[in-house]
Amino acid sequence: MYIEGRRAAAEALRTGFPVKRALVAEGEDRDAVLSKLVTDVHAAGIPVLRVPRAELDGLSSHGAHQGIALEVGAFPYAELADVIANAGEGPALVVVLDHVTDAGNFGAIVRSAEVVGAAGVVIASKRAAEVTVATYKTSAGAVMHLPIARVPNIARALEELKGAGFWTVGASEHAEGVCWDAPLSGRIALVMGSEGDGLSRLVLETCDDLTKLPQHGKTESLNVAQAATALCYEWLRQNSR
Asked: What CA–CA distance (Å, rounded) separates 59 from 38?
């Protein structure tokens, strides 16, 4: 797997993410920003291989490698216990994704969760987006800053979060009230459903509460990443009082 792009590569170096080698486009020596990044790669003891730009184009997921890609191993997923431990004892946010499948949405949600200070993200181990090159890119490197746990059963994970003092709140069109009136202060596990089906029946039944965003326009709804961002910030707002 590759982390592509200068910003993502710089974040990988800054956080000490394990990197096997760096692939750098040939003929880019006059690019001061890239040259500085290559110097940092060398300083970290990472082998550098100069390759034709066409080779980077071939492995790039978005065509936006910017002259550098880092080859890394499998992403080090956390355990749910790690996410709970990272939450500490006070107010905390954990974002739980019930089979979100689009890599772009997944990355955007991770980015929003990290920006508001969430303790972690929980995803399903099957039929769900994973941390890939695309996720590194769309999360702007946020996947390297907070634990992401993969679990075999989302409903069971919610029960474990409840046992750790979390109030589980699902985002659903079936909710009676909007998020402005929902109790989102304290320890909250925010549950977002899949792009097509929303929350599954068992997850809906497991949630302590349901909420939704207020809506006045004619468009059907926001996508899951936009909705998650708005709800993450509502959690932050209620906990900043």
From this structure: 19
Quote the DSSP letter at residue 80: H
Residue 7, SS3 per DSSP: helix
State yes or no: pLDDT of 115 exceeds 90.
Answer: yes
Name 187's bridge partners. Answer: 92
CA distances (Å), origin 170, targets 97, 212, 238:
10, 8, 17
Tell me the mean pLDDT in the region 130-137: 77
* Mean pLDDT score across all residues of the chain: 91
Cβ count near 175 (within 10 Å): 17
How far from 16 is each of 24, 72, 106, 143, 189, CA to CA, in Å? Answer: 19, 12, 23, 13, 29
Q: What are the tens digits of pLDDT across the range 36-59? A: 999 999 999 999 999 998 888 888
Report the run of H or E that residue 24 belongs to, with start and end. strand 19-25
